[in-house]
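User: Predict the structure for this protein chain, please.
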Amino acid sequence: METLFERLSRGRPQPVEEKTKQPDNAQRLLDWLQRWDKPTICAAQILMFGPRSTRKRKDADDATQILERHGWLVPQKTSQRNWRQWQIVRKPIIHPTIAS
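Assistant: Here is the predicted structure, written as C-alpha cells:
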C-alpha cells in the first residue's frame, strides 16, 4: 500500500543537486591579476599579495604555468636568473576565464 506522499511524488522528476565548483588556483590568480594595477608582476609579489590559494610556491608555480600556456602571462627577462617576472596580458573581457 502506497502512502499519500509516495503517490504524489510518483510523477515528479528527481531533484537535481547543483554543485558549486570552486574556481581553481589559476582562475583565482587570473581574476586577481585583472585588478593588479601594474603592467608586470613577479613571483615574489604573487606570493606576498596574491590570492590566498596561491601563497604556496608550488601552487603559484602551477597557476602561473597554466596562465602562460593560455597567453595571460608573458615571461620577461630579468637581471637575475632566479627571478621570474611576467607581463600581464589584459583583454577587453568582462569576466575572463583561462580558456578565453
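The longest strand covers residues 73-76.
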